Amino acid sequence: MSEGGIVGEFFSLKEEADADVLTMQVGDFYEFFADDAELVGDVLDLNVSQKSSHGSSYPMAGVPLSELTPYMKQLVERGYRVAIADQYETANGHAREISRVVTPGTLLETTDDDAQYLAGIVRVDDGYGLAFADVTTGRFLVSSVSGPDADSKALTELYRFDPAEVLPGPEIRNDDSFLEAVRERTNASLSLHDANAFAPGKAKHVTREQFGTEALSSIGLDSDGNAPNAEVRAAGAVLSYVEETGAGVLGSMTRLQSYHADDHVELDATTQRNLELTETMHGDRNGSLFDTVDHTKTSAGRRLLKEWLQRPRRSLDLLRERQSNVSAFAESALAREEIRETLGDTYDLERLASKAVSGSADANDLLRIRDSLAVLPAVADSIANAPSLSSSPLAELVARADRAQAERLREELAEALADDPPKTVTQGGLFRRGYDDELDDIIDQHEENLEWFDTLASREKSRTGISHLQVDRNKTDGYYLQVGKSDTDKVPEEYEAVKTLKNSERYVTDELREREREILRLEERRGELEYELFGQLRARIADHAELMQDVGRTLAELDTLASLAVHAVENGWVRPELADSGFDIEQGRHPVVEQTTEFVPNDLRMDDEREFLIVTGPNMSGKSTYMRQVALITLLSQVGSFVPAREARVGLVDGIFTRVGALDELAQGRSTFMVEMQELSNILHSASEDSLVILDEVGRGTATYDGISIAWAATEYLHNEVRAKTLFATHYHELTTLADHLPRVANVHVAADERDGDVTFLRTVRDGPTNRSYGIHVADLAGVPVPVVERSRDVLDKLRQEKAIEAKGGASSEPVQAVFDLGSGEFQQSGEENEQGDQPDDEQKINPETEAVLSELSGVEVADVSPIELMSKVQEWQKRLDDE
Ligand SMILES: Nc1ncnc2c1ncn2[C@@H]1O[C@H](COP(=O)(O)OP(=O)(O)OP(=O)(O)O)[C@@H](O)[C@H]1O
C-alpha cells in the first residue's frame, strides 16, 4: 500500500488513533478513505468515489466541514468510536493531527433528552467502585458497593444509570460472565481504557487535580497515605478518559458527588423492569410510569423526573420537603401554571454549560444561556407573590442558586451580544455597539466606507454629468462604477475600464480600489476581533459552569415538582403520610392502569401483626395489578410524589423486590424456571425486614408439587427469617392455610362472582382466602374442547386427594408442626391424626370413593348453591357412601 500523499497521511493517523473510524480534514471537507469510506458509505449512505494516490486507487467519501456533526453523531450512536483529525496551518504549509476521539460516552452533540453517562467500574477485594460522568451536563457521581451480593448491586447501579459507555477496570476485563451481565443490563459499549489510569496513585492524583483535595475528603474519599478507595480509582479513570478523548469538557465537571446505596430504595434491575418504570416490558416508553406522570416543560426537568423515579429515596426529611413542594404547587394552580409557562422558555442550562466549557457553544447558545438565566428571577417572583408557594420550602429551593451572580452573568451577556447574531462566530456581527471600543471604531470606519460607496453614484453623477451611472459590487469584480454605453464619452480620465458588457462599461478608480481594500481589511479585522472577543466571553461564561448548573438544576427541580403536582391534581392523587413501617392505603389505584380503565379501587392494610399477605383469586381477577399498585404507590411515596388513593399511610421501605412472570428471558438462553429461581434467590438474599417483596406465582414454572413446596418454603423463610413486608399471589390454594399457623400471614383474595356458570370479576380485594381458580373455567371460555375440560375437572379432583404437606413455624414463633391434607383441605397438628407415627399406613387410609366425596363436600361453596341442589348433592353422596 502506498505510504505517501493524503491517503498515506490518513493511514498513518489511523494507525495511531484508538478508534474504529477516522475522518480527516482536507481543506473544506472531512474525508474518509479506504475501509472507513466503505463503512460510512454503508452506514451513513454517503457517496463513495475513488481517489487516486501514488499509483493506487482508494475509496473516498467526504462531508463539508460544517456538516460533520450529524454524521459523526450517527456513527457514535451506533457504537463506533470516531477519531477526528483536524488540519492547521504551520510555517511550512499545513499539518494534521487527531484532535478528538468521539465515543458513545463522550459525545457532546447529543440531542437526546436522556442523561448520557460514561461509567468506570473497578473491582476490589470486598466489592466495586463506580464512577458515572455525564459529559453533556457535567454531573459526576461516585459510589461503592460491597458485601456478598456486591456483583448484583454493581450491576443494579449500572442498570439504573444505563450508561452509554463503560470502562471496565483491569480486574474485570477478563471476567467474561460479568461483562456479559453488563451487556445484558445496559446498552453500553465497553471500552478498554489504559489500565494505568485505574492505578491507585495515578487515579487519585487526577481526581484531586479535578475536584480538589477538600472535595475528596469532604465525602470521605481522601484516605491520605492509604490506597485510595475503589470509587476514586474509577473516578480517576473516567476523568483521564474524558481528557484523553479530547472532548474538552473536564471544566464542566465542577462537583464530585458521592452517594451511598443506603440513600436510595434498592430496586434491582428485574424490579425496575417489572414495574415498568421507564418502559413497558415490551420496551415501549408509552404506558410506562414515567410516561404517565410526566408533565414537565423542559428537557432538564424530564431528565430529573426520570432520575427521581429510578432512584427513590429513603430520607424522610427530603421526602417530606418534596411533598410540601408538590403540595404547595398543587394548591396554587394559577401561580403554578404561570411558572410552568415561564419554565417553557428555558433551555438546558446544564448542557449549555458543558458546551461553553468545551468551546463548542456559539453566539446563539450564549443567548440561550442569557434567556434561561433570566427565568430564575421571574419564577422567584412568582413564588414570592403566591402565599402558599412562598411559605413552602420552594422559597428556599429557589434561593439556593446565587441569584445575584446569575443576574450579573445575564447582564454581561445581554450587554455583549447582538439579538440576532449569525450562526458562525468568525464573521462579525455578534456584538452590540458599546461593548468594545476597538470594535466600535472598526464598525464606524466600516460604516463610513460603506456610506462613501452608497453616495458615490450621486456624487459622480453630479461631478461628471453622467446620468446612467451606478455603483455595484459582485464576487469577481468587487466594487465598480457602471456607465451606460450612451454616456461612456463623458467618463473622466481617472476611470479605468475593467469590463465591457453589452449595454454598459464597468470602471474602477484608485480611490475606489483603496476604499474597497479598506472595507475588506476592516471586515477581516472585525471578524478576527469578534472571534477573539467571543472566545474570551465564552471562556468567562464557562468559568461560571457551576453557577449555570445550579440554576439549571433549580429550574429542573421546579419543573419536576410542578409536573408531579399537575398529575396529582388532574388525577385526584393524595399526599401520603410517610411512616416508619406498615401500610394503610384506602381506595388505592394503579397509577398507569387507572388512565385507561374504569378502575376499581382497593385497600391495603399491613402492620406488625400482618406482614405477609397471600393473595388468591381467579385468573384474570386482578392479583398482579393489585400487587403492582402497592409497589408503585410505595415507590411514588418515596419519590416525594402524591399517590393514587383516597388516603394513604405508607411506611418507608429500604428496597422493593419483585418476581413476576418472565417475558423475554428465554431469548437470553436461560429457562423460565431458572430465571424465576434466580430472582427468588436474589430476593431471599437481599430483602430485609424493611423491604417490600412482591411475589407473583412463584413455583409455577415447574412440577406442581415442586412448585408448591418451593412456594411454601419461601413463604416460611420470608415470614420467619427475613420478615419483609410481602404480598404473594398464588394459585396454590394450599398455601392459604399457612395463615392459620404463621402468625403474621394473612389471606386476601380478589373477589369474583360466579352465577349460572358465568364468572364476573369484581376486582375487589377482600380479607380471607378463596379456593377457586376458575382456571378450568377460563379454559372452557377459551374454547378448549369439552372432553378436555371435563377430564381436567376429574384430574383436579383426583390430585386434591393425594398429598399432604407439613407446615413449619419459625424460630421466632411457637414451633408449629402441622399436616395439611390436600384432600380435606384442612390442617391437623402432626401426630393428631395418626398416633403411631408421622405417616398413616395403607390400612388406615380411607377408601378412594369416600375421599372423593369428602373432597367434593369441602369444595362446595354453600352460599353459591341453591338449597334444592344442595339436598340432591347430599342424597347423592349418601348413596355413594352406602355403596362402599
Ligand atoms: N382494580 C381493577 N379495576 C379495573 N380493572 C382491573 C383492576 N385490576 C385488574 N384489572 C384489569 O384486569 C385484568 C387482569 O388483571 P391481572 O393481570 O392483575 O390479573 P391476575 O389475577 O394477576 O391474573 P392471572 O392470575 O391470570 O395472572 C387486567 O387487564 C387489568 O387491567
TrEMBL record:
Region of interest (Disordered), residue spans: 828-858
Entry GO MF terms: ATP binding; ATP-dependent DNA damage sensor activity; damaged DNA binding; mismatched DNA binding
Comp. bias (Acidic residues): 832-841
Binding site for ATP: 617-624
Record-linked SUPFAM superfamilies: DNA repair protein MutS, domain I, DNA repair protein MutS, domain II, DNA repair protein MutS, domain III, P-loop containing nucleoside triphosphate hydrolases
PROSITE patterns: DNA_MISMATCH_REPAIR_2
DNA mismatch repair proteins mutS family domain location: 691-707
Domain of life: Archaea
Keywords assigned: ATP-binding, DNA damage, DNA repair, DNA-binding, Nucleotide-binding
GO biological process, one term: mismatch repair
Cross-referenced Pfam families: MutS_I (PF01624), MutS_II (PF05188), MutS_III (PF05192), MutS_IV (PF05190), MutS_V (PF00488)
Function: This protein is involved in the repair of mismatches in DNA. It is possible that it carries out the mismatch recognition step. This protein has a weak ATPase activity.
Family (UniProt): Belongs to the DNA mismatch repair MutS family.
PANTHER family xrefs: DNA MISMATCH REPAIR PROTEIN MSH1, MITOCHONDRIAL, DNA MISMATCH REPAIR PROTEIN MUTS FAMILY MEMBER
Protein name: DNA mismatch repair protein MutS
Species of origin: Haladaptatus litoreus
Gene: mutS
